[in-house]
Amino acid sequence: MLPIVLNVLIAYAQEKNDDAALLMQLDRDFDEATAERRIEGWVYYFAPNGSMLSDTSQPITGLQEIRTAMEPAFKDSSFSLRWKPTKAEMMMPDKLGYTIGRYERLRKNSEGKLMKSTGMYASVWKKQPDGSWKIILDTGHPDGPPLEVR
What we know:
Radius of gyration: 18 Å
Number of helices: 3
Strand content: 35-45%
Distance between the termini: 65 Å
């Protein structure tokens, strides 16, 4: 009996590791797509009803609203947003999971100085009816105020 239970536990642990690896890879792909395709890469990874929490008091929900909110930043050639996931976990296997990690954002301020912001982020991913995984919630928290890049 013990070998059967042990095999089930090992299979479950492997499935959890595979699920976490999937989310880690999706998050890395999201970063790459955003770096290469800018706003198109950013919007592509959100679910139709996805939301972003930002500096505003209200969530930004829906693909068009997310595009409208982020497009001005991505149109600025000095703007860069990169991140690396550090952890992924399934909350509901094959349905819902999250990634967390560190981000770095570069952009010029109103005086034309290049500023760098770093911080932590979290993205909640949900499996869509077509089998793809999309972000239903994305948020970040800065380490502090932006610092001038010298």
